[in-house]
Design a protein that fits this description.
Elements (H helix, E strand, L loop, with lengths): L1 E6 L26 E6 L1 H4 L9 E4 L2 E4 L6 H18 L3 E4 L10 E3 L7 E3 L3 H8 L3 E4 L8
Parallel strand pairs: 1-2, 1-5, 5-8
Antiparallel strand pairs: 3-4, 6-7
Helix pairs in contact: 2-3
């Protein structure tokens, strides 16, 4: 089976900023085709659960209280890339709109719920290294 990096929250792990999970419909069907490798870049970067929500603004990651969390997000992305390389992953299924995992659309840094074009820190790094990134709305493309 092919290895596939997967956001742990999509598998039901309570690791999101709010301490919850976000299980994705249909994700169980991926187990028959892929060796699922769960990751949470925020936790792997040293952030706690729960944690203050973060968004990207001007290329840096800030929490709602104004703290710069860029270093933790970069560290977490590096750790996910390390695992992807170790397991020989060619693809990743990541949580949409997340400042770490979002691909194509992320929140704009204003904490107003407004989306903008862009990638989360981890998604961008994986893409830079040739790993195809899918959001949970694209699970069917992996089947």
């Amino acid at each position: 089976m092919k290895p596939l990096i997967v956001s742990a929250c999509l598998l039901g792990t309570a690791c999101r900023y709010d301490g919850a999970s976000k299980p994705a419909a249909g994700i169980i069907t991926l187990k028959d085709k892929y060796n699922l490798i769960p990751v949470c870049p925020e936790i792997m970067g040293g952030l706690p659960t729960p944690r203050t929500p973060c968004e990207i603004k001007n290329g840096c990651v800030f929490s709602r209280d104004g703290s710069d969390r860029t270093a933790q997000y970069l560290k977490g992305a590096d750790e996910v890339l390390r695992l992807a390389r170790f397991f020989g992953c060619e693809a990743a299924l990541l949580k949409e709109r997340s400042p770490a995992c979002g691909s194509g659309k992320i929140y704009d840094g204003s904490f107003s719920g407004t989306l903008t074009d862009g990638d989360g820190i981890c998604a961008a790094l994986l893409k830079k290294h040739g790993i195809t990134v899918y959001g949970e709305s694209r699970i069917d493309e992996l089947l």
